[in-house]
Specification:
globular; single chain; alpha/beta; Multifunctional fusion protein; 218 residues; Rossmann fold; five-stranded parallel β-sheet; binds cytidine-5'-monophosphate
Length: 218
Amino acid sequence: AHIPVLCIDGPTASGKGTLADRVADQLGYWVLDSGALYRATALAARCAGVALDDEPRVAALAARLPLHFEAGRCFLDEEDVTDALRAEEVGLGASAVAALPAVRQALHQLQLSFRRVPGLVADGRDMGVAIFPQAQLKVFLTASAAQRAERRYKQLISKGFSANIAGLLQDLEARDARDKSRSASPLAPAQDARLLDNSDLSIDASVEQVLAWWDEKR
Ligand code: C5P
């Protein structure tokens, strides 16, 4: 119970993943990319031919997700799905299954299991509110929608996907709206979260800010 947890929550493409990886690296902690669990659930449902709104069947898939992380890669069964998980359509599917309470429930325990010595950096939407409410530090990361669309664009292009900014901006706003308005764990900062707007911050500056807060809190 004394294993420290640092949560980084925020909207799509706010840079949570990069920030979480960098901070975890600095602290020598484990990292939980909780979005990957929802993405893997959406992918598993697609592969199994299960409709994304079939709550009991999607939740059953989530409860026994054959997911493994190894050397920075993510495997579903034996298949390396690291890149497939990043596809925009999988992200949209993730946001659909993430709205189902039974799916969130099914993934709860799995997320807790990432808390291991010497500590965990957890990134997602509800890490600070629902999964690790006792976390030592909760950061809520934001950035303008235009900035986030541009970052997502660069990320997709660099992974060999095709993309266009206007379409991405639209998807991103639709996903944010759905994440904020759902009744199960809507996207919102925890009451005790520190807000960090990184629209005009370099990644190094963001890492430094979070590490400074961490030093204060510990
Ligand atoms: O962060 P990422 O874009 O990978 O998350 C994909 C989707 O999974 C989000 O749009 C959100 O709907 C959902 N999600 C969630 N709770 C989390 C992490 C992700 O609902 N903790």
